[in-house]
Every structure is written in structure tokens, then in C-alpha cells.
Specification:
Elements (H helix, E strand, L loop, with lengths): L1 E7 L3 H12 L4 E4 L8 H4 L4 H4 L9 E2 L12 E2 L21 H9 L7 H11 E3 L13 E5 L5 H12 L15 E4 L1 E5 L2 E2 L2 H4 L10 E4 L3 E8 L2 E9 L2 E13 L2 H11 L2 E2 L1 H6 L6 E2 L11 E9 L5 H4 L2 H14 L11 E5 L10 E6 L16 E8 L7 E3 L10 E3 L6 H18 L8 E6 L7 H11 L1 E2 L31 E3 L14 H20 L1
Parallel strand pairs: 1-2, 1-13, 2-10, 5-6, 13-24, 14-15
Antiparallel strand pairs: 3-4, 6-8, 7-17, 8-9, 11-12, 12-13, 16-19, 16-22, 16-23, 17-18, 18-19, 20-21
Helix pairs in contact: 1-14, 5-14, 12-13
The structure holds flavin-adenine dinucleotide.
Flavin-adenine dinucleotide binds next to helix 1, strand 11, helix 8 and helix 14.
């Protein structure tokens, strides 16, 4: 097989790249390890709770047990279908803080400051509630406000203001500190994955071939030039050659993994897994940065929470509302309102994100709803300093890599999560919540000191699924950079990584919109080079 461009991975970024290339008339082959996105739970927003552990639409990775998680392995879902993680995620549409992108530029990633990337955020989206200087009006990705807002969410927004957080009209606007309602990547009642919003626009064109259930097993090289990709479909093996470029968009676990098993990584590590080095690139799989949370939950009274709406007759009623009115609990994502705030005075940008959900969850199984009504604030270490690794453990493409996130290994992250829990407690203690709370169920009143709260976070905390940094972008003098600011893999020709893994550090907020922005900017780079 031959193409101009071969894109590995039809995820948040991969679908954007494939669509923009195909739209420009380029001949594209898009390889996706998972199946087509036809499963109904993908398209019903609340279906995320069914997708978190889905055996076929999810890679279901896990991290190693570590000190920062009290020896627990943490489940790491990643989407494995058209749309990738945008087909199984919580659908929150939230951009990083201006300072995130400015710090990338400051570290030497020329062209990635906030002012540089804003046009790509705008180009990607259609925000249905208005435009303004920061918002897009006619991009493929539809962004909507919540259609149905449970009263507990309004109480959270009021309580947060009573606790001193200013109200922010649009958390994706210029003002990114304070409390605001969440926005979602949704098309009406349905999930707006990049498969449904971007890829659907070109899928019937003759110049794009989308191959599903196709696992890329190796990048093919001639010397230091990437010339194509080997892949397997069931027990059949095949190869596709790229006349222009190969684009790796496998996401933060698979992109470094495929590079390593193909011979691009630390030569020392490659030797231990029996892979002949093509190029010694020590940063591949290093610098892993992710968001870790601890939860504060209350038992709710005299108000409806998702817990009650998700069973029996009420669930049936919500099902009917969904199909007839396009509203109700089945249109919900993971968090209906949020606070961005600081863990201490003097910080230039927020380092805590508090995500409110009118629901409470089983402390032992993340994402499983409790029977009794409840409400939760997830306290995220929004600018973590801890760094981890993702390393192949053999040359076998089907053997999962070892994930060591090192959560809470940096002292400052422990301080931030403790402060996040204290700030969440302060919000729950405000008058707006008094009529609706029976009392705190997590961490529980007996947990008060900094050490007790930190230990609670180690014992019960979780990822919120935003790993990045393992193929980080950086300037020439950064020996740990995997790609340059044009997203080209250092020392290799004909190969770029265009996905969330290139972020030098995780953004202050959830990562999907930024992965899509990277896809938009990366495709402009590909097309500009093709024109020269
Ligand atoms: C459960 C969950 C909830 C989340 N919630 C939110 C949220 O509410 N808001 C938000 O902003 N972010 C959220 N995120 C994060 C966000 O979805 C990701 O940051 C983003 O999707 C990453 O995009 P990507 O293109 O880097 O990778 P992905 O979207 O993961 O795409 C990678 C694709 O490559 C394919 N692939 C991988 N390896 C191969 C191979 N060898 N051969 C062929 N194909 C391959 C995969 O199957 C996948 O389709 C969530 C993530 C998860 C998992």
C-alpha cells in the first residue's frame, strides 16, 4: 500500500490531522487499532460510566503500584475506537490557562505562545452560545453549555462565590480564575468526538482510507528516514508506505511505546528490550505529567443527584427525555461546574482545579456511582511537578508498556492537593449548601491534619486521565526533547508526533481541546512543508 501521508491513530488529534490533510486533497491512510465508533454508549454522553472499563473500546492500561498511591495500581483508560479518547472521555471542553502556552514558548517552543495557539483553538470550534475574541464560530468541533443543570450545581456556583471565588462568565474566555459552569464537546444531545465532528466530514472522500482494527506494530525506516508503517489486522500483516510523511498520533501511552519498539528511544533502554536502535533519543517515554485528584464528597438531601437518576424508573424517564427532548441526565458529562484557584498567594496563574459533580462515587471503584444521593468536588493538582515514565518492557507490540506516573512524588504536589481539599471543604461549608448536605462522607471528619489529608489522597486518589509530556516538544539544546517545535522527531526524517504526548507539561485544565489544537497546528505545518 502507498499513500502520501500515513496517520497512526484516529484519536482526538489524529482525526484532526487526517481530516485537514484529506480536505486539502492529500492522499491519506489512517490506521486505527480499535473498531468503528458504532457502539451506542459512545454517543450518549452519560455513557462514559459504561466506557471507563469497556473491554473493546478502551485499552484499559494501569499504572504500577507506587508510594504516591499507597502501592495501588491506578486504572488508565484510553479510547480505542474512531475518535480515540474523545470517544470515551468526560467531554468537558476547557482550554489551558494562557500561562501554560506562554511557558511552552518561554522554554524554547517558538510559535506555541497563547497568542500563537489561540487562532487554532478558534478555528477548531463552533461555540453555540456566542463568539467573542477568544471563541470560534464555524469550526468542526461543536461546543455547548450544559442543557440540563441540576439545582445542586447552581448551589455549588453560589457556594463557591460565598467562599470568595469570583464568578467567571466563560472559563474559556480571558478570565480563567474563579467559578463557572462547564462547557461540553457535544452535538446537541450527542457526544462530539473528533470522529463525529472532524473525520465524518471527509470519510467518504476518495483520497482518504480509514482502516480500523489495524494495530500499527512498527515504524519502518531506511537509515534515519521513516518510510512507512507495518500493521496487523487480526492475524494478517501488512505495510503502508508514506511518500511524504508518517504522523504518529497514538496518544500518550502508545506514541512513545511505538517509537521505542521501532528503535527510537534511549539506546540503553532499547538494548534491555532487545530492539536495535535506529536513533538514540533519551527523552522518549520520560517527562510523564498527569493530573491526580483527591475527592471531597457529601451525602445529599432534599435535592436530586445523578445517583437517584441513574436507576429504576427514573433512569427510564431520563432515557425518554434524552430521546424525545434531547435533555436530562443522559446528556451530562463528568463535571457541571468548576473552580480555578491558587494554592498560595503570589502565584501568577491557578494551580488548583476543583471539579464539581452532583453525584457521589464508590471510593473503591472510580466512576461507579453510590446508591445514596451525593455530591463531589474532585481536587486536581492542576500544575503538577511530579514526573514519571512510560517504557516498553519488550519488543512485542501487544505487550503493554510499564507506566510509572510518580504521582505526588514532588513535595509541592502534596501541598497543593492538601490545599485543594481544604478549599473544597470551605465551599461545602457555605450557607448555599447547608439545606442540601447531610455531612461529609469523604475524606470524613476524622481526617484533618495535613498529613492525614495527604495520606487520604495517596490511599484513594486517582488520575483524571490527562497524561502528556512523554514525547515532549523542545528546542535543540534540550536533550530530553523528542520533537522540535515543528513536531518533527529529532534526528529522524519524515516522522512527526502530533498528539497530546508532545505537550512539554500538562495544561492547567483538561487536555482534549489542547490535543485538538495541536492537531490543527500540526496539520498547518504539514501542509506548509508540502507547499514548499
Ligand atoms: C476516560 C477519559 C476521560 C477524559 N475526560 C476528559 C474531559 O472531560 N475533557 C478533556 O478535555 N479531556 C478529557 N480526557 C483527556 C483527553 O480525552 C485526551 O487528552 C485526548 O483525547 C488525547 O488525545 P490524543 O490524540 O493524544 O490521543 P487519543 O485520543 O487517545 O488517540 C489515540 C488513538 O490512537 C490509537 N492507537 C494507539 N496506538 C495505535 C497503534 N499502534 N495502531 C493504531 N492505532 C493506535 C488509539 O486506539 C486511539 O484511537 C479524558 C480522557 C479519558 C481517557
Amino acid at each position: 500500500m502507498n499513500a502520501e501521508y500515513v496517520v497512526v491513530g484516529a484519536g482526538s488529534a489524529g482525526c484532526v490531522v487526517a481530516m485537514r490533510l484529506a480536505e486539502a486533497g492529500k492522499h491519506v491512510v489512517l490506521l486505527e487499532a480499535g473498531p468503528k465508533d458504532i457502539h451506542p454508549w459512545i454517543h450518549i454522553p452519560a455513557g462514559i460510566l459504561k466506557l471507563l472499563y469497556h473491554p473493546k473500546l478502551n485499552w484499559n492500561y494501569h499504572s504500577e503500584g507506587e508510594k504516591g498511591t499507597a502501592g495501588r495500581e491506578i486504572h488508565w483508560p484510553r479510547g480505542k475506537t474512531l475518535g480515540g479518547s474523545s470517544s470515551i472521555n468526560g467531554m468537558l471542553y476547557i482550554r489551558g490557562h494562557q500561562a501554560d502556552y506562554d511557558s511552552w514558548a518561554q522554554s524554547g517552543c517558538r510559535g506555541w505562545s497563547y497568542d500563537d495557539v489561540l487562532p487554532y483553538f478558534r478555528r477548531s470550534e463552533s461555540y453555540v452560545s456566542g463568539t467573542g475574541e477568544t471563541r470560534g464560530a464555524d469550526g468542526p468541533l461543536q461546543v455547548e453549555d450544559y442543557r440540563t443543570i441540576l439545582p445542586l450545581t447552581h448551589q455549588f456556583v453560589e457556594a463557591a462565590q460565598q467562599a470568595g471565588h469570583p464568578f467567571a462568565e466563560d472559563l474559556n474566555g480571558y478570565e480563567r480564575v474563579g467559578v463557572g459552569y462547564s462547557q461540553m464537546s457535544r452535538i446537541g444531545r450527542r457526544r462530539g468526538s473528533t470522529a463525529q465532528t472532524y473525520l465524518s466530514k471527509v470519510k467518504n472522500k476518495e483520497n482518504i482510507q480509514i482502516i480500523t482494527n489495524a494495530l500499527a506494530t512498527k515504524l519502518l525506516f531506511e537509515g534515519k528516514k521513516c518510510i512507512g508503517v507495518a500493521f496487523s489486522q487480526g492475524d494478517k500483516s501488512n505495510e503502508v508506505r508514506a511518500n511524504a510523511e508518517v504522523i504518529l498520533a497514538g496518544g500518550s501511552v502508545n506514541s512513545p511505546h511505538l517509537l521505542q519498539i521501532s528503535g527510537v528511544g534511549s539506546a540503553e533502554h532499547l538494548k534491555t528490550i532487545g530492539v536495535e536502535p535506529v536513533h538514540d533519543l533519551p527523552g522518549v517515554g520520560q517527562n510523564l505529567s498527569d493530573h491526580y485528584i483527591a475527592r471531597v464528597s457529601h451525602r445529599a438531601k432534599d435535592a436530586v443527584s445523578i445517583n437517584q437518576l441513574s436507576r429504576g424508573l427514573r433512569l427510564m424517564r431520563e432515557g425518554i427525555r434524552f430521546f424525545v427532548e434531547g435533555r436530562g441526565a443522559l446528556t451530562f458529562g463528568v463535571s457541571s461546574a468548576q473552580v480555578f484557584t491558587h494554592s498560595r498567594e503570589g502565584l501568577a496563574s491557578p494551580d488548583i482545579q476543583l471539579l464539581f459533580s452532583p453525584a457521589s462515587y464508590d471510593p473503591q471503584k472510580f466512576g461507579a456511582l453510590e446508591k445514596e444521593p451525593g455530591m463531589t468536588i474532585a481536587c486536581s493538582i492542576a500544575r503538577p511537578e511530579s514526573r514519571g515514565t512510560i517504557m516498553a518492557q519488550s519488543s512485542n507490540p501487544r505487550e503493554y508498556p510499564i507506566i510509572r506516573p510518580n504521582y505526588m512524588s514532588a513535595e509541592n504536589d502534596v501541598r497543593v492537593v492538601v490545599e485543594g481539599v481544604r478549599q473544597a471543604r470551605k465551599i461545602f461549608s457555605q450557607p448555599a449548601f447547608q439545606p442540601y448536605s447531610v455531612g461529609e462522607t469523604l475524606p470524613g471528619r476524622e481526617i484533618q491534619s495535613d498529613d492525614e489529608i495527604a495520606e487520604f489522597a495517596r490511599q484513594t486518589g486517582n488520575t483524571i486521565y490527562h497524561p502528556v509530556g512523554v514525547c515532549k516538544m523542545g528546542p535543540e539544546d534540550d536533550k530530553m526533547a523528542v520533537v522540535d517545535p515543528q513536531l518533527k522527531v529529532r534526528g529522524i526524517q519524515g516522522l512527526r508526533v502530533i498528539d497530546a504526548s508532545v505537550m512539554p507539561a500538562v495544561t492547567t485544565a483538561n487536555t482534549n481541546s489542547t490535543a485538538i489544537m495541536i492537531g490543527e497546528k500540526g496539520s498547518d505545518m504539514l501542509l506548509a512543508d508540502a507547499a514548499n
